[in-house]
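Notes taken during the Thursday session

The instructor put the following on the board and asked us to keep it in front of us for the whole hour. The protein is non-specific serine/threonine protein kinase. We were told not to look anything up and to reason only from what is written here. First, the residues (486 in total):
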Amino acid sequence: MGCTAVQRPKLGSTFVEDRQRINAVNEIKVDPGIFVSENKQKFQEVYRLGKRLKLMNNGEVRICYHRDTSAKRAVKILRKDFLMYQDESFDYENEIDIFKSLDHPNIARMYEFFDDDRHIYIVMEYCSGGELFQEIAKRQMFTEIHAARIMYQLLSAVSYLHTNMIFHRDIRPENILLEEKNEIFNIKLIDFGASVLSRKNYKMIIDQDSLIYTDPEALTGEYNEACDMWSCGIIAYILLCGHAPHNMKSVSSLENMDFGYNQEPWTHLSTESKDFVSKLLCPPSGRLAAKEAISHSWVANRAYPSLPGQEIVTEVLENLASYHTNNKLKDAVQTYITSQLMTLKDTRVLREVFRSLDKNGDGKLCKSELLEAFNSTMGEAFNEDDIAKILNVISGGNNDYINYTEFLKATLDQRKVMSRDNLKGAFAMFDKDGNGTICADELRKVLEGGHQSNDEIWHEIIHQIDQNRDGEIDLQEFRDFVLSKT
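Then, after some discussion, the predicted C-alpha cells were revealed:
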C-alpha cells in the first residue's frame, strides 16, 4: 500500500509541528522517541543478519543480532531502487516519523534506523510468535475468549493511534505479530508505512494484499478512522469464522457482501459476538469507534478472565507512589534503558498490570484510573491531589497521564535497570563519536528533540557531573552520577 502527500518532511524528523525553545534544564522533555534516531555507522558493523522472516516487493524483514550486546531484534530492509521507481520515498520517511513516536504495549518498539546508498534499515522489536496470519492459517478458528483477547489488544492500539490523530490504513493479520508461541496471544501491531496523520492531505492507494481488509468507502480514496475500524471488523470475523465474509475477486465485489450471520458457524457463536462484528462491518455512520468497540460487552467480558494477583498490583502501585527523580539526565537514562534495552521478558508481568489498570484501554493511565486503583487496592484514602503529585513526578510535569514507558520506568526493578551493562549501553548512546566521553554537544544532539535551545543548558548538565573538570563526562563519572541518591 502506498500514499502520497502534499509535503515531505526530512527523514527521521518528528511530525510534531509546534516547537518551543528550551531555555532551562527543567524544560527538557524526555520521551522514548528522542532516543530513536539514525545510526551513522554501517548497519553491518552494528548488526549481524539472521534468517529471513518475510519477503516483500520493496525489501525484506529479517532477524538481526546486535554485535556488542547480542540483542535479538528484527530489521525491515527497504530497497531504495524500488522505492524511487515506485515514487514511494515518503512511505519510509513517514513510517519512521510515526513509528518512533509510538509508545503502547501492543505496538512494537522501534529502536533505530540506518540509511545507506542502497537500503533503509528500520530496526524494531522482535516477536518470536510470528504473524497472526500464520496462526489463523494453522488454527482456522479461535475460541471466543482467544478472539476477544486479540481484539481487545488490537482495539487498544488502534484507539491509541486515533487519539493521537494517526490512521494505520493497513490493519491486517500480516501486520499483527504474536510476542511468543503460546496460548496467551499477546500481540504487537506493526508496519506504519501506510499510516498518516489525520490532519494531512493524503490519498489512498490500495494493493491486492490489503484489499480484503479495506472499507468499501476507502476505495473512493477517502480514509478516516472508521476505515481502520472496518479492518478490525474483518479480522474479528476471520478469527471467529476462519474465513473472510467475502471472496474478493475484484474491487466491485466489496460493495455487495453477505455476512452469513444465519449460517454456520455464527449459529453456534454468541449473540454478543454477532452484535460486535455487525457494528464494525456496517456503514461508517453507525460504525463503532475504537474506544466504543473496546468497551463492547463481547470484548469486555471475555478478553481477560484473570487479572494479576493482588500482591503484584500492590507492589506496583507502591513503586509508582514512591518513584522520584530530581534530574533530567537521570530521567533520560532511565527512559532510554526502559524503552531500548529492557526485553519483553523483563516487562511481561508489568505489562499485564498496566493493562488491568488501563480501564478504558487507551494505552495510558489517567488520573481517575490511578485514583480508582490506589483506593481499591492500597486500602488508603488517596485524593486527587495525591494522584496529581504522582502524575507530575512520573511524567516530568509534561502530561496529566502516565504513558506506557513512564509506567515501566517507575515500576521496573531498579537493580536490573541500572545494571552495569545497561549503564554502559546508555553511556554509549550519548557518546556519539565513540571517543569514551560525553560532551555538551552530544547531550544536545540526544536531548534537544528537534527544539532550539541555549548552549548554557548543556554545559550546566556537564558541570554537574564532571568531577575532574575537563569539560566532559567519562564512563565512571556517568555511573557515579546516575547511581547517586542526590
